[in-house]
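Researcher: Here's a chain I'd like modeled. Treat it as a single chain, no partners, no ligands.
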Amino acid sequence: MTRKKVFISFDGDNDLHYKDLLVAWDQNAEFNFYVYNGPPMEAIDSIQAAEIKALIRPKIAAVTHFLCIVGKESSRNPWTEWEINRASAQKKKLIAVKIEKDYETPPALNQDVVWAASFDFNAIKAALEAA
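Model: Modeled as a single isolated chain. Structure tokens:
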């Protein structure tokens, strides 16, 4: 499998542990994960949001795949929606994984998305291979 460049979208207030787990998998030669690790997210319509978007855009542009970690609050997170829409507009391969199967899907993921069956290495790897 060719090494995939993957941007990880996650709710920084609630799902940091799951992002950290994926980053730990970055030691695997098959993945190269990218994340936004800048300052805390401002309101999406704030003046500072433009600066944050300017930092995130090139990270999404540099990847082949976009992986959204869907947590309990993801469907209500405007940053998650913005990142998904940005990746979709840039024709990135979209992959998503729910932490819990009953978590609500963010509306922006109601399109051509490959879903990982569960939040574990093999399921996410299989979804990345299928995308």
